[in-house]
Design a protein that fits this description.
heterodimer; B: 377 residues; 7-stranded mixed beta sheet; 10 strands; 12% strand
């Protein structure tokens, strides 16, 4: 993760679908923004990349072991 | 007659046939006769035992015709777990290595893990986003190491993806191919590419308690003894002959209306995919089954709300409440796991039912999203 994110979504302690919901909310608020998502629900490791694919967002980096993802929101 | 499972409304609102079909009329009639005529232990030499033996042999011959295999290769297991155990260990003397697709059912994957713990080298083969076994990966797995027992289902019971078994058979030439046909049996033509195959009778309207196992080369088939009982034989002691006879009879009389479920599933997808942020997982699919995902909705809430309106559906076991772990098949294909809904149609479902269900579903998804503050996303 080379550059600092514009927004951070802390979804730790929240269960699916909350992490994806918060990510979608952040993406809507800031089109094109670089969003860091923190989540510890095991489903997040599948659901965040799947959300990016379905919504046309760019998954910049994924570190499921640390529970961190970097997403570029659709413009 | 009790109204429960024979009730027409129940059947028309049963959109969870992938879990099992209710016993057919043929099954219920056969069971009634079987319990009076063929209740005895077919291993006994007195008249009641011999009568049971004749009924069992007739059932075996009937299944052999349906599944196109020698009667000596037809076995009856008490449950799926036993059938899987037999399948994965039956040829292990000559084919000790296990190569298993990542989308086999949980029981199969757990059994493979147990055998790996016993020292069987285990390779898991991944799938594409559509759920198809990666054939290149399968080739690579088989290229190294000795003869393997290869485990690939004919179709996936969660997302419906059919595997290209002709290609798998080619790649796995010289290896033992074990094919789970749970998703096809009684509902679509069975695959012919297998050395060992099995399916539960309840999938074709037979009774619970019978899983048919077919083996091409029964002479070499020697399953390991079960870890719980130490029982090593593939002959059950005192098998439930009335159940087996009913299962065989139900297999002889498939319901031709299953064919229509493919068109109804198309109709269903056409309506449901109009819901925003919905998607279908799995391709190419068995005709009767569709796995949908809806963003920002919890699957369990969706299933409960639909149940309140009388619909029986399954969440595809995603986000199972006991582990909080998403369903392994959805993970393997990289699908969105949280709002997953498996809709599996049956022969009694009509176009009107599909339309009513689609309308209820759209309604509920909209409301749940609104309650979750996701209406504008």
């Amino acid at each position: 993760m080379t550059r600092a994110p514009d927004v951070r979504v802390d979804a730790r302690g929240l269960l699916c679908p909350q992490p994806v919901l918060l990510l979608a909310r952040a993406a809507k608020t800031g089109p094109g923004a670089l969003i860091e998502v923190l989540a510890d629900d095991p489903a997040a490791a599948t659901d965040i990349p799947a959300w990016c694919h379905l919504r046309g967002a760019d998954l910049v980096a994924a570190d499921p072991d640390r529970g961190a993802w970097l997403v570029r929101a659709p413009a | 007659m009790p109204a429960s499972f024979t009730d027409g409304d129940d059947r028309r609102r049963d959109l969870d046939t992938a879990t099992g079909s209710p016993p057919s009329d043929v099954t219920r009639q056969a069971l009634a006769g079987g319990w009076s005529g063929a209740w005895a232990d077919p291993g006994r030499r007195y008249p009641a035992g011999r009568r049971a033996r004749r009924v069992l042999d007739t059932a075996r011959a009937s299944v052999a015709r349906s599944w196109d295999v020698d009667p000596a290769g037809v076995l009856f297991a008490p449950d799926r777990a036993t059938a899987i155990w037999w399948g994965l260990t039956g040829h292990r003397a000559d084919h000790p290595r296990l190569v298993v697709s990542a989308v086999e059912d949980l029981e199969t994957l757990r059994t493979a893990d147990v055998l790996a713990g016993w020292g069987a080298p285990l390779t898991t083969v991944g799938v594409s986003p559509s759920g198809a076994v990666e054939l290149g990966e399968l080739s690579a797995a088989l290229a190294e190491g000795g003869p393997a027992t290869v485990v690939v289902q004919a179709a996936n019971i969660e997302i419906g993806t059919r595997q290209d078994l002709a290609a798998v058979r080619d790649i796995a030439a010289g290896h033992v191919l074990v094919v789970d046909q749970q998703a096809l049996a009684g509902r679509a033509p069975l695959a012919a590419e297998w050395d060992v195959t099995y399916a539960e009778a309840r999938m074709w309207g037979g009774p619970p308690g019978v899983t048919v196992v077919a083996v091409r080369d029964p002479g070499r088939f020697r399953p390991a003894s079960a870890p719980t009982t130490g029982h090593a034989s593939v002959e059950q002691t005192y098998p439930p002959v009335p159940l087996i006879a009913a299962a065989a009879l139900a297999l002889e009389t498939p319901d031709p209306r299953w064919e229509a479920t493919a068109d109804l599933s198309d109709r269903l997808r056409g309506a449901v995919l109009r819901i925003p942020h919905s998607a279908v997982v799995g391709e190419p699919r068995v005709g009767y089954l569709t796995m949908f995902t809806f963003l920002y909705v919890a699957a369990d809430e969706l299933v409960d709300e639909l149940a309140r309106r009388g619909w029986a559906v399954s969440s595809g076991a995603s986000c199972t409440s006991d582990t909080r772990r998403p369903h392994h098949v959805l993970v393997a294909v990289g699908a969105s796991t949280h709002g997953s809904l498996r809709v599996s149609l049956g022969p009694d479902v009509t176009a009107g039912d599909v339309d009513a269900f689609s309308a209820d579903l759209a309604d509920i998804v909209t409301r749940l999203r609104s309650e979750a503050g996701a209406a504008d996303l």
